[in-house]
Amino acid sequence: MVGNKRQIHDPQSVKTAVLDAALELFAQHGFADTSLRSISRKAGVSHPLILHHFGSKEQLYDSVKRRVVEGYAARFPAAARDVNRPINLRVELKRILTYVGENELALKLCARTHIDGDHQVWPGEPDLLNLIQKRIEVAQAEGLIRKDLRSLQLSIMILGIAFFWLDNRRHFAARFGKAANDNAYLNTAVKMIEEGLLPRFSASKSQDEE
Hints:
By secondary structure, the protein is an all-alpha fold. The chain has 2 domains: 1-55, Orthogonal Bundle (Arc Repressor Mutant, subunit A), CATH 1.10.10.60; 68-209, Tetracycline Repressor, domain 2. The protein has helices at 11-29, 36-43, 47-54, 57-75, 77-81, 89-102, 104-115, 125-141, 151-176, 182-195, 202-209. The longest helix has 26 residues, at 151-176.
């Protein structure tokens, strides 16, 4: 792998170059098979300078993960600040699909951690989950979502629905063509969560039978 020949010295440029290179290499090869020297070659930053800014490979790995997670708030800053608004499921799912869809290396890194058996919490991940959970609880307080549903589990389900599609959409597009696309999946997921699977007349019919 050929890296940048010109050495970078400006502190912010150094950090950006190292994080970019590290994300790509960690996503492609995993933590164990990525060396600081390979990151150094790709980033155009000396090995000692990487250690100066990040301390160790483990700390760099955490920094890469944190950057991925915090990038969501940077991509949607107004939404990240507005924690007291009830969740809009369609908007929330679309934001997640948009952000991760724009950052395929982040998705690959997530898949790579699973392959490597790394189930550690990513730095900044609790903040993102808490943001979704808080919005669900606001919606429950306003009577927009059933209160007997646990907000934590709903938050996990929302993330799971988004990540399942992002992990598999190319496969389903190859199999089903235009019938499998982001909008169709999003529309069905929102309807399923908001309205359930039972036909709309089932509830009233059950009450009449009683």
